[in-house]
Every structure is written in structure tokens, then in C-alpha cells.
Amino acid sequence: MRIVYVVPGFGNTFYCENCFRDGAFIKELAARGHDLMMAPMYIPVAGAPIDADTPVFFGAVNVYLKEKFSIFRRSPSWLERILNAPFILSLASSQSGSTRVRGLEGMTLSVLRGESGNQAKELDRLVQWLIEYGKPDIVHLSNALLIGLAPAIRAKTKARVVCSLQDEDTWVNEMEKPLDKEAWSVMREQAKHVDAFIAVSRTFGRAMQKRLAIPASKLHVSYIGVPTKAYKRSVLPDTPVIGYLSRLTPSLGLDILIDAFILLKKDERFARARLRLTGGLTGDNKNFVEAMKRKLRHAMCIDDVDIIPDAYRDDPHGFLSSLTVLSVPVPEGEAFGTYLIEAFASGVPVVQPAAGAFPEIIRLAGAGALYSPNTPQKLADALASLLGDRKRLERLANAGVRAAKKHFDVAVMAASVERVYRKLR
Question: Does the pLDDT at position 63 exceed 50?
């Protein structure tokens, strides 16, 4: 089967769940004998199995300039090639605003509108490449923020269009009002041109089915998978070590975890407990991290906290295997939480708020604890309950390893998506 996977790059500057999912999935599909190509968008995809000759589409600098200044919508090809140079795109990906929604609403809407947006020339370039070089049976869009590409791709290449669903709501809902409602309206209209949607959890699938008016026959669920054999088993250290694996930002609950850790340390049983934080640090969050350091110093806990932003990239398996438990207390939950299954594969139980898809994933795995409401005190209580029970920790750790192999291995994910592809042939 000839498959082209359209995926946005992220520059490898922070822990990106969608990117992790896409990379693992693409490698597994290729290993299973599929004829696979990637079409990277915005910036190059760091570390992905990709043909070096494949261009970057919708180059981040070109897209931004075309949205902000109409004169760039008629840019000559030589200027566009310069602006798509790898070093320029790499520089763009490192900027503070690259993960910030505010200020990018117009560009988001323009890409969602597809052929009627300000990047119509970029879309035509992608479609022509698909016709001449990709020649796909299936074009798989990494997320629904790319759904504006679907009508032109489907009509002009005759390929079937598949779209994954994971946490698009967190971007759209943060858009300035009423642009958020406009974005959802455009996405609902473009969804009619997608042949199949694949949600990363049943919880998120139901939410997006309602948002985008997706017919039940088009909606499928495939849990994220990781290469479970690559993970090192944690040996539950005698000194409790609590880990956090996500971008270092309050939007993902890091402030909640730090407050909970300070509360936990007041319990004599956990006076020696440590906190290890990784997942990448963008410019927007440097002031936040400095404020958290000041808070930890004031509480006399700073010496028990390791803040190592790039450990997830430098030695991800070593980081995970050093933990007793993992917690990423995202305020409103998430569509899945890839860090959960990375922890399961490493024999590390998790402690998460009962929000989003966390209850679905944790109950299926039987390898973690849930708490509600999502406050520092409730999290501290849940951590204390688990860390104070060695037998329970060991039981949950073993359950996590079994669940990772059974439900969350990359081979399981690939087989699930293959079944959707075959139904469309």
C-alpha cells in the first residue's frame, strides 16, 4: 500500500506527543513492508525516517509572511526556497512563540480554509508533489489542524484521506474569541472530505465526534503505541523519586506538581523524596521555571529537585527507569498522554487527575492512581498513599509492563491503523 503521511515538524525542542506517535508509527509501518513517504510541514521533522530529497511544505516562515503581508503571497519561487532553507526553519522553530496560540489564530484559520486561505499556493505545491512523486493510495494527516488540506488532496489525487485526532481542542480553545468558534465551524465543514478519523482514545473520539459532526462509520480508535522492548525496567529506588515528563509549563500542570511535592515533603515519611523534571523548555516558560525555583528555595526543597529539560531527549529510557512514580497533572486532562505508556513500559506507576482520557488509559492498564479534584493537596495525598505502599507499587509496576506489551505496543497500534486503511481500499 502506498501511504503518504503528512506531519508537522517541531524542531525537537520539547517533548511532543504527536511527534512521538508519528515517528514510532511511521517506522513500524515501514518495517511492515508498506511503501511509505513523509510530507513534512512547517519545519523539518527531527530524527524521522525521511527521504532527504523530500521538501518541507508550508514552510513556517513562508506561511507566516503570507498571512501577515499580502505581498508575500506573490513571492517568486527563488525567495520561497531561501525562506525554506533548513537553517532558517530551524531558527523559526526555536522562537518563543512557536508553541503559543495567541497571535497565530489568523494563520491557523487560513491553513484550515485550504484552497480559499492565504496559503493556497503552498497547498497547490503539496498536491502537485503528491501527484508527481507521492502517488498515494492513502494520505494520512497527523492531526485535525491539517484538515484544510483534505478537500484538494482527495479531489485531485483520488487518494483516500485519513486524519488522526489528538488534542486539537487545546489549540483551538485557546484561540481568541470568536475565532475559536470560527475555527471549529471551518473544521466541521472540512471534515466532510475525510474518509476516516482515528482517535487516540475513546474519550477523545467521542468529544471530537460531537465537535466535528463525524459519522460513527468514519470514527475509529487506535491507542498510541511505543516500542516496548526498548524500555529499561525501573528498579523502584529506595528513596522515592517522582518524575514529570512533558514541556515545563503551567499549562501541563507543573505548578500543581511542584506545590504537591512541597506538601509531600512535610510528611516525615517522604523527607528524602526527590522530584525529577524533564520535557523541554521554551522561551515562553523560562520566567515560570525561575519562579518555581524560587518557590522551592523558599520551601527549602530545591536541593531535592532535578530540573533537566533535555533528559527526555538525551537519555529518555534512563530518565524513566530512575523513577518510582510519574505524574503530569494536566489541569483539564489530555486526549491520551504518551508519557503514561512510556512509564508503563518502564515499570513506573502513574498518578494522574481523573480528567480527559486519563481514567480510560489508567483503568485499562491497571497501573496507576487517579485523584480528584486536581489540586496540589489531592495530588500530594494520592502520591503519599502510593509511595507509602511498596507492595502496591510493585503490583502496579508489573501491571504496567504487561499492559504496555498487550495494549500499547507500536505493533498493536500499526495493526489497528492498517485495518482502517484496508477498509478504505
Answer: yes
Q: By CB neighbour count within 10 A (0-12 exposed, 13-18 middle, 19+ buried), where does 346 fall?
A: buried
List the domain range (segments joined by +) for residue 395. Answer: 228-407
Phi-psi region of 47 (alpha: psi -120 to 50; beta: other; left: phi over 0): left
- HSE (side-chain half, CA atoms, 13 Å) at 385: 12
126 and 249: one domain? no
- Judge if 180 and 99 occupy the same domain: yes
Phi, psi dihedral angles at 306 (to 5 degrees): -105, 115
Overall number of domains in the chain:
2
Q: Are residue 115 and residue 252 in the same domain, yes or no?
A: no
- Same domain membership, residue 310 and residue 384: yes
* Distant-in-sequence, close-in-space partners of 309: CB < 8 Å, separation ≥ 6: 248, 277, 278, 279, 280, 281
Q: What DSSP character marks residue 57?
A: B
Write the pLDDT tens digit of every residue in 332-345.
999 999 999 999 99
Which residue do the cell numbers 489564530 mark?
Answer: 105
Q: Which helix (DSSP H) or strand (DSSP E) does residue 179 occupy?
A: helix 179-190
Q: Which residues pair with 6 in a beta bridge?
A: 39, 141
Unique residue bearing C-alpha cell 507566516: 64
Task: Select from 144, 111, 109, 149 the least CA-distant residue to 129.
Answer: 149
pTM, whole model, 2 decimals?
0.89
